[in-house]
Amino acid sequence: MSFFDDDRLLASFATDGTLIIWRTDTWAEVSRTPIGSAGYWSNIAVHPTLPIVASPGSTLSYINIWQLDLDVLRVAGPAKPTANYVCAKAVLLGDSGVGKSGLGIRIAEQTFRKTESNHGAQFWHLSAEKLRSALPDLQRELTLWDMAGQPEYRLIHQLFLDDIDAALLLFDGGDSNDPFRGVRYWAKILKKHAPLHTLKILVAARSDVSPATADHREIKNILDECNLDNYFVTCAKTGEGVEALFDCLIKKIAWDELPRTSTPRLFHAVGTLLLQFTINSESCG
Asked: Does pTM surpass 0.70?
């Protein structure tokens, strides 16, 4: 493959003898043309200044020379059905035992399962269908990460926070001595590592076994102190507050701040299928 036209276009040569042209601003495939014989070691050559491509001929004695219409290629739309999407990353943060895994399962799978304390990290991929995107020409996707709450993992998990778009800070609302245990720590880490557009939501999880003891004044104080955007009370077992939390998450993520990806629909469908297979395999393991 080779870039040309001041890197605005990319040419690739398939083993079946097809010349494929891509626009580098959208990464859309704008042209697919059979141009001659090819083998595993075949290649193409693009002139450094002229819109000319050379490709192998039918025998070793021949070379095919092709002239490209750059004005058409620069503005061409996708040559085949294309998926345009943005993918956001959200994380569940909090001390061990505050209900991160249960909430993650309820959000991603709409069900409840008893869980043990998680070690390391696990994630769920929420496809465009689950996010109910309001933009017909743009698919929204979300990857939800569950970070283990044991103190020995804190330093490692900081490495995952420099590209997040939302953070759910969970706490044990029934702890009368220190109800916001861990919240201040993670708020400090987010201020240091997370992007400026990151949405930060305080969540009192497990309301069925740990009803929140903090009053409205204490909640407002911690929101202001830690620069958090919202507060929800949830229960993974009953589903209380989860839908409202999820709707807020999807509506308030700064989707316009995220890079857009354009890829052939077939590639996108295969990638989504493989990712789902990976997640299911990890769940079974």
From this structure: no
